[in-house]
Write a structure and sequence with these properties.
It comes from Streptomyces botrytidirepellens. The longest helix has 15 residues. Helix content is 10%, strand content 43%. It has 153 residues and is mainly β. The termini are far apart.
């Protein structure tokens, strides 16, 4: 069952990858490994905005915003909700992944082994309202976060 969910989840991430992507690296001057990311912006064909986060050049996971209901990006057999955040931890590196919305909503894989999808974090927001989402790698009370990206409800 886990393998089926993982396959479906990977297929969902690949579908997310079909939209335009931007890659960048965040600079770290404290000796910590650098964060880098691939931003998959929302398009007409997809309700999702996703940020793949890399820690020290290695894929750590993904934070995803779902603007409108539809699809099944995590492969759980249910239609994905709208105005919703989800996080995916794809690496057994001891780190968790969090997706955070400026409203205080947080989807987190903290405390779970990889691969793992967090539950969806939902709540109605004003139609077409502008928000920011940031994605972080976390462990205990340590975190390293990317700059926020803009998402719309």
């Amino acid at each position: 069952m886990t393998r089926k969910i993982l396959k479906a989840g990977v297929a969902g991430l690949l579908a997310l990858g079909a939209v335009a992507a931007t890659q960048a690296t965040a600079q770290a001057d404290d000796g910590e490994p650098k964060l880098s990311y691939v931003l998959r912006q929302q398009s007409v064909q997809s309700p999702y905005t996703g940020v793949d986060i890399y820690y020290g050049g290695v894929y750590a996971g993904t934070g995803i915003w779902s603007q409108n209901p539809g699809g099944d990006i995590n492969g759980d057999g249910n239609t994905d909700p709208g105005d919703a955040l989800i996080a995916y931890d794809g690496a057994g590196d001891g780190l968790g992944v969090e997706a955070r919305l400026d409203t205080g909503r947080v989807a987190s894989t903290r405390g779970h082994g990889a691969p793992y999808w967090s539950p969806w974090k939902t709540g109605n927001l004003g139609e077409d309202s502008k928000h920011s989402m940031k994605v972080c790698v976390v462990k205990g009370d340590w975190e390293s976060c990317l700059s926020p990206v803009t998402v719309y409800a």
